[in-house]
Amino acid sequence: MRILFVHQNFPGQFKHLAPALSADPANEVVALTMQQNVPSAWQGVRLVSYRPGRTSSREIHPWLTDFETKTIRGDAAFRAALAMREAGFLPDVIIAHPGWGESLFLKEVWPAAKLGIYSEFHYQPKGLDVGFDPEFPAEDVDDACRLRLKNINNLLHFEVADAGLSPTYWQASTFPQPFQSKISVVHEGIDTAALKANPDVAMTLNGSIALTRANEVITFVNRNLEPYRGYHVFMRALPELLRRRPSARVLLCGGDDVSYGARPPAGKKWKDIFFDEVKDRIAPADWRRVHFLGHLPYEHFIPLLQLSTVHVYLTYPFVLSWSLLEAMSVGCAIVASDTQPLREAIRHGDTGRLVGFFDHGMLVEEVCGLLDQPDERVRLGANARAFALEHYDLHTVCLPAQLAWVARLAAGGG
């Protein structure tokens, strides 16, 4: 079988599936990516780069800027696909993340190929992430119009895609019918063999602060520290957390850019805005127990989770982070926001604790309560790991289901 993966930053969500398919000598696996200067192959997958031929227009209607960008990328990928066809590559299956538009026109090149799309999220003008946080309301009345047009990319893919693949049931539920009925729910998978508890874990901060499981450690992890992932809520809880837990170390992992949602006011960073908001309520000695770690290499990220006494994860109603499931696999005692994405994995009182997203006072109560209950932390962590093993294990659950989905896709369904 000839398989083409399409992802602007390959491998992305296909980092396990693509190598598994390429390991079968009966398959020829190729990936189309916008990355430049890539090697000719990665884990058996041949890599082909494309480059957009132009940038977005200055004078285009602002509601259409997003779709024009996707069209430009779709055009570039289309041209690369034409060259691949001329060179003799005819895929049986195309598996694409459609979020940046690359796969918009690939069925024009290969009409017989079956197209499966990674169905990550379908935007809504209300009821999901948009308008969820009253502190950051829609900027103007045009936003609902702009958001409807943002979904053009998804809607056009629904016309040509044969099947979809979504990592969670809630994310799949954001898509409209009839396409929702074409979506299979299979997570990318968590390597539970690598992500497990380590009672002997140790970490040294700033070259001098040695931490082990004997220390009281509160962890908070985002790709970037921003409101979509509750950074502002956590920071507002921080003064009371530090006051009530005079021995606790607070470790925050994440960058200072923006992954989701609006950017902060010009010249500022969300990380600094909410740091500045609480800094005068925290004594210098207590600030020395707060550690901003930035982006951690994965080999250091795992020990961070293993070190955690209580792990905090907050999110708007948006895509679920891998880090939450990785924390579950490690067996962390988790306090999470009671928002739709979490309810699929965190069962209150069973696999973790849920609190209202905006209730930083209750967040403090739950974290401090668990810090005082070692037996309860062990129980919640064990249940969280068992849940991860049953539902998200890479090798026994997710990857076999993904491979079965590809087989169904190739046979004409999904």
From TrEMBL:
<protein>
    <submittedName>
        <fullName>Glycosyltransferase</fullName>
    </submittedName>
</protein>
<dbReference type="InterPro" id="IPR022623">
    <property type="entry name" value="Glyco_trans_4"/>
</dbReference>
<dbReference type="InterPro" id="IPR001296">
    <property type="entry name" value="Glyco_trans_1"/>
</dbReference>
<feature type="domain" description="Glycosyl transferase family 4">
    <location>
        <begin position="27"/>
        <end position="194"/>
    </location>
</feature>
<keyword id="KW-0808">Transferase</keyword>
<dbReference type="Pfam" id="PF12000">
    <property type="entry name" value="Glyco_trans_4_3"/>
</dbReference>
<dbReference type="Pfam" id="PF00534">
    <property type="entry name" value="Glycos_transf_1"/>
</dbReference>
<feature type="domain" description="Glycosyl transferase family 1">
    <location>
        <begin position="216"/>
        <end position="386"/>
    </location>
</feature>
